[in-house]
Amino acid sequence: xxxxxxxxxxxxxxxxxxxxGSVRAQNCGDPNNNQTFAESNxxxxxxxxxxxxxxxxxxxxxxxxxxxxxxxxxxxxxxxxGMYIVDHYYQFEFFEIEAGGGTIESPTSDSSxxxxxxxxxxxxxxxxxxxxxxxxxxxxxxxxxxxxxxxxEPYSVPTVTGNASGNNVYRxxxxxxxxxxxxxxxxDGQRRxxxxxxxxxxxxxxxx
Length: 208
What we know:
The protein is of the alpha/beta class. Helix content is 36%, strand content 15%. It has five helices and six strands.
């Protein structure tokens, strides 16, 4: 399925909060904020869209609506204090950014230009240009998710892929001649990105 189940996202957020502790900063989009994750009790999520690519624009918009519904529900829990995890209440905040190099009104139809734009956006997002992200939700499609995971990997920022079912997004696959054509692969079946996390069904689970 290309749609992330709300329960999967809630569970994932819980695990990520436990894993990343107090090393992130809050206030999405503000690189000058010096509050730590523990001080702010705010989980900052980088949310990437692909509204700029016409065939995916509608699905990307539908996912955006779903994510925002989840965000509102999570933050409204416990009388508006947010989700209670271990010993703190946490609020969740999105920093939204277009990852396809254009807008719905002015789409980017050239795939090479779109890929370059997505790579730059992901690098900026994960390197702290917009403030440090606790994790990011990759843009729609396996191709862009792979690019985003690659760019965020050096910064150890978890990349959640709820809309990418391609097998080689997550693991290294040799071709019929035994060649590995994907970076940074060294052997068949190797986990491709240590910080990429899939919460949807991969193609190998429903294609023979």
